[in-house]
């Protein structure tokens, strides 16, 4: 007889460095410990096929490929989300799986293994999540609905409909704007869009739903972003100030987990002093900054 028969494996403990989407054994829903949120974030992955319309060189998704998601099974998503929320809100999930100092549910995040707004059902998903949040009393607990997005599809009507619904749910958008030159966006994000077009999408986002600019800064081949790149990025934020965009501020962060892309060996974290200096320059323009080195 096996000596380990009947012995239960210890529960999986969430950490800020491991965002494995499969820990809950679900198709769409996964819990993570978010260093930026300072608590548990329930992720909703609308791209279980690891497909995205961008290819960021710092992306932690393995086997990332170009494309869009398969059709979203809304009934399955609803079932999984409600089961996870019941475990967290009414059960002992936090006690079993989360370190003591981070045992709180901070948000529900439309994120995952690709661009969430590429799902044609995006607006329906927002409504579904909103109903679940209301049924579990989450808005009264200060739990937010967050969309973590590259913003590339915000010109589409169904996405704008979803953003308007998010605003009514006290939601917010984390809009990726890592670089503000065409060459920088091509290199870092693997997109042929222009900074000007991307800025127009940022304008749409900010006017439809509370929006943060989220920016990842890192060293490439041991070298930080060039002065040209940094100046272009700051000029974009200055333009947003001139245009009186109602942005919430900037989420500035560095590398936390290894990239799973072919460029991984070329990437490294920047010194905290470099990030703090950039944060101070952004703050001097009048924008709030949340820095996560």
Give a short synopsis of this structure.
The protein is of the alpha/beta class. 34% of the residues lie in helices and 18% in strands.
Structure description:
This protein is α/β, with parallel strands linked by helices. It has a single domain (29-292), classed as TIM Barrel (Alpha-Beta Barrel), CATH 3.20.20. The protein has eight helices and twelve strands. It has an eight-stranded mixed sheet with strand order 1-2-5-6-7-8-10-12, covered by helices on one side. A two-stranded parallel sheet has the order 3-4. Strands 9-11 form a two-stranded antiparallel ribbon. It is globular and about 50 Å long. The protein starts with 28 loop residues before the first strand and ends with a strand. 39% of the residues are buried. Residues 1-9 and 16-21 have low confidence and may be disordered.
Classified by CATH, the class is: Alpha Beta
Please list the strands of the largest sheet in the order they lie side by side.
Answer: 1-2-5-6-7-8-10-12
CATH superfamily: Aldolase class I
Give the proportion of residues in helices: 25-40%
Structural class of the secondary structure composition?
alpha/beta
Strand share of the residues? 15-25%
Computed over alpha carbons, the radius of gyration is: 19 Å
What is the CATH topology assignment? TIM Barrel
Straight-line distance between termini: 51 Å
Number of domains: 1
Order of H and E elements: EEEEHHEHEHEHHEEHEEHE
Report the CATH architecture. Answer: Alpha-Beta Barrel
Oligomer: single chain
Task: Indicate the overall shape.
Answer: globular
